[in-house]
């Protein structure tokens, strides 16, 4: 997957506010994704990030039970966002199995959920001392681009 640099920067800025759980700033940052093309590119990148990090956390493709457990952890950690465990589970199941989001979640809620889930997973994953979520995101994006 080739990552659009413009969209990547917007995604990183928005992820920053989601990781910090700053709902006002997060909502403001989401306005950058008002056109369909930018929104779709962001959703594709966030889905790839969520799938990669989920597999990293679970040390392989997550099982349905692992997806359920991750969904519960994310929903609990991200109460500020109003993301529910069933929504997170549906999102994760779709990205892990490669199914399209259409039909799983409404387009607008899928984008918000994609940011919340990706931010939460990036934060939840154990990191080396001194490593921050954005350092890990650099590695994830490099792996996504290398995989094609």
Q: Which descriptors apply to this entry?
A:
single chain; 148 residues; mainly alpha; 0% strand
- Our Rg estimate from Cα atoms comes to 14 Å
Helical content (DSSP H or I, runs of 4+): over 70%
User: What fraction strand?
Assistant: under 5%
Report, as a whole number of angstroms, the end-to-end distance: 4 Å
Q: Which structural category do the helix and sheet elements fall into?
A: mainly alpha
Sheet with most strands: none
Task: Tally the helices.
Answer: 7
Q: What is the 3D form?
A: globular
Order of helices and strands: HHHHHHH
Q: Kindly report the average pLDDT value.
A: 93
Number of E-state strands: 0
What does this structure look like?
By secondary structure, this protein is mostly helical. It has seven helices and no strands. The protein has helices spanning 5-19, 23-30, 36-58, 64-77, 85-97, 107-124, 133-147.
Secondary structure: elements and pairs:
Blueprint: H1 5-19, H2 23-30, H3 36-58, H4 64-77, H5 85-97, H6 107-124, H7 133-147
Helix pairs in contact: 1-2, 1-3, 1-6, 3-6, 3-7, 4-5, 5-6
Kindly summarize this structure in a few lines.
The protein is mostly helical. The protein is built from 7 helices and no strands.
